Amino acid sequence: MLNQTTSDALFTQAKDLIPGGVNSPVRAFRSVGGTPVFMQSAAGAWLTDVDGNRYVDFINSWGPMILGHAPAVVLDAVRAALPHSLSFGAPTRRESELAQLITEMVPSIEKVRLVNSGTEACMSAIRVARGYTGRSKILKFEGCYHGHADAFLIAAGSGALTLGTPDSAGVTAGVAQDTLTVPYNDLPALQAAVAANPSQIAAIILEPVVGNMGLVVPQEGYLQALRALCTEHGIVLIFDEVMTGFRLAPGGAQELFGIVPDMTTLGKIIGGGLPVGAYGGRADIMNQVAPVGKVYQAGTLSGNPLATAAGLAQLRHLQQHPELYAQLDATTAHLADGSRQIAQELGLNYTVNRVGSMFSLFFTAAPVNNLEDAKQCDLPAFGRYFHAMLERGIYLAPSQFEALFISTAITDELVDKYLTACRESLVEAHRAE
Ligand SMILES: *Cc1c(COP(=O)(O)O)cnc(C)c1O
C-alpha cells in the first residue's frame, strides 16, 4: 500500500475549505474512489507527491505538459520574463509574437484573441459566431466538453459525466433551449437537427477528435460531411482544439484530417502549463470582436507576460522539432497496441482508441464511437484498475471518460514499465469478480 498520510491530511483540510477539497471536480477521485494524491513537484515523466511517492505521469496536467514536466526551454523563458513584472494590463510585444506563431502553425486562424482558459475561448467563440450570423442557437455533440460556460453544460462529457450530472444545476431553461445536442459520429442525426432549425444555428462546435468521453475518433468522412453541411447552411464551424491543438500535429486535428474550420479554440498546450486560451479564425469573423466589432470580450490578465513567455517557448520548440510528433506517435502506438494485446491475452478484448499521442483503454469489448458506447464500460473494474496502476507508480486520469496524454518524456523503458503494470493491474481489477 502507498503511504498517503500527508495527502490524506491535506485532503481532509481542503474539504473544509474548498468544495469537495478540489478546484476542479475530476481531481476528487469520485468515480474511482479513494482520496486524491497531492502533488509536490515534477520533472520530466515523473511526479512526486507530498509523501514522497513517485509516479510516471500519463495525464500531464490533462494535456499541457507535452514536453514532460519542467522542460528547460519553457522554464528558462519564464525565468527570463519574471524580473520584468507579472502584469501590465497594456499591450506587449510577445502577444503579437504568439499570435504570429499561432497563425503560422494553424493556418485557418487569420486573427486570434488570447484569453486565460479553454472555457473562455469556447464561450467567446460562440458569442462571436452568434454576433457574426445574427442567429441564436448552437449545436454540440453529446459527450463533447467545451469548458464550463452555461451553454455547454448540456450533455457535457468528462467531469460532468463522471459525477453523473451531465446537466448542471444553475443553468437556466432559456440557455438550454439554445443548445442543440446530437450524438457524435451520427451524420443522419446531425442532418435532421440542422433541417429542423433552418437559419437558426449560429455555430456547430465539436472536438474534432474527442478526448472528453475517453478518446473517440471521427469516422471516415464525418468531418468532411460536417464541413460541407456548415458551408451549405451558413453555420460557423468551430473546432475545439483545446486538447488536440499542437498535439495531434503542429496544426492540430485540422491539419491531421485536412479540414479547414471557420473558427478554432485553443488552450492547454498553448500556455505551457500557465493559464492561456485562445480563439481565432477567419479575419471577417474575428473582426466582429471589440474594439473593431460589436461583440464584447475582454480580460484583465489576457496575454499575461509570463503566460505568453511559457506558451511561446513551448510552441516554438514544437514548431522547430517536428520529429517530436513522430516520436509521440510511436511511443503512444506502443502503449495503446500493448494495452490492447494484454487485454486480449487476458480474454478481456477491451477496446483501445488512439489518435497520435492520445488514447483510451475502454473497459468494454464493443467499439466506442460515441457517448452511449462509452457508457457501456465496466466502471467499477476501471476504478480497481486505476488504483492498481497508482500502486505501481502509474498516474492515470481518475476517470474512464478521459484520454491519456503522452509526453515526449516517456521513454521505451517507461513504456515497458507501463505495460507490465497494465497486465498486473488488469488481472487485479478482475480478480474480485
Ligand atoms: C479542457 C478543455 C476545455 C476547457 O478548458 P479549461 O482551460 O479547462 O477551461 C475546453 N474544451 C476542451 C476540448 C477541453 O479539453
* Topology as a string of helices (H) and strands (E): HEEEHHEHEHHEHEHEHEEHHHEEHHEEH
Radius of gyration using CA atoms only: 21 Å
- Under CATH, the topology of the largest domain can be stated as Aspartate Aminotransferase, domain 2
**Share of helical residues:** 25-40%
According to CATH, what is the class of the largest domain? Alpha Beta
Determine the structural class based on helices, strands and strand pairing: alpha/beta
Choose one word for the global shape.
Answer: globular
Strand content: 5-15%
Total helix count? 15
Strand order of the largest sheet: 4-10-9-8-7-5-6
EC number: 5.4.3.8
GO biological process, one term: protoporphyrinogen IX biosynthetic process
Keywords: Cytoplasm, Isomerase, Porphyrin biosynthesis, Pyridoxal phosphate
Cofactor: pyridoxal 5'-phosphate
Could you characterize the architecture of this molecule?
- The structure is a single chain.
- The protein is an alpha/beta fold.
- It folds into two domains: 5-70 and 322-431, Aspartate Aminotransferase, domain 1 (Alpha-Beta Complex); 72-320, Type I PLP-dependent aspartate aminotransferase-like (Major domain) (Aspartate Aminotransferase, domain 2).
- The chain contains 15 helices and 14 strands.
- It has helices at 5-17, 72-81, 93-105, 118-133, 158-162, 173-177, 187-196, 222-233, 252-257, 283-286, 305-320, 323-345, 371-374, 379-391, 412-431, and strands at 39-43, 46-49, 54-57, 111-115, 137-141, 179-182, 201-206, 236-240, 263-266, 277-281, 351-355, 358-362, 394-395, 404-405.
- A seven-stranded mixed sheet has the order 4-10-9-8-7-5-6, sandwiched between helices.
- α3 (93-105) packs parallel to α11 and α12 runs parallel beside α15 (412-431).
- The longest helix has 23 residues, at 323-345.
- The two termini are 21 Å apart.
- The model has no long low-confidence stretch (mean pLDDT 95).
- It binds pyridoxal-5'-phosphate.
- Residues 117-119, 122, 145-147, 207, 211-212, 240, 242-243, 267, 277 line the site of pyridoxal-5'-phosphate.
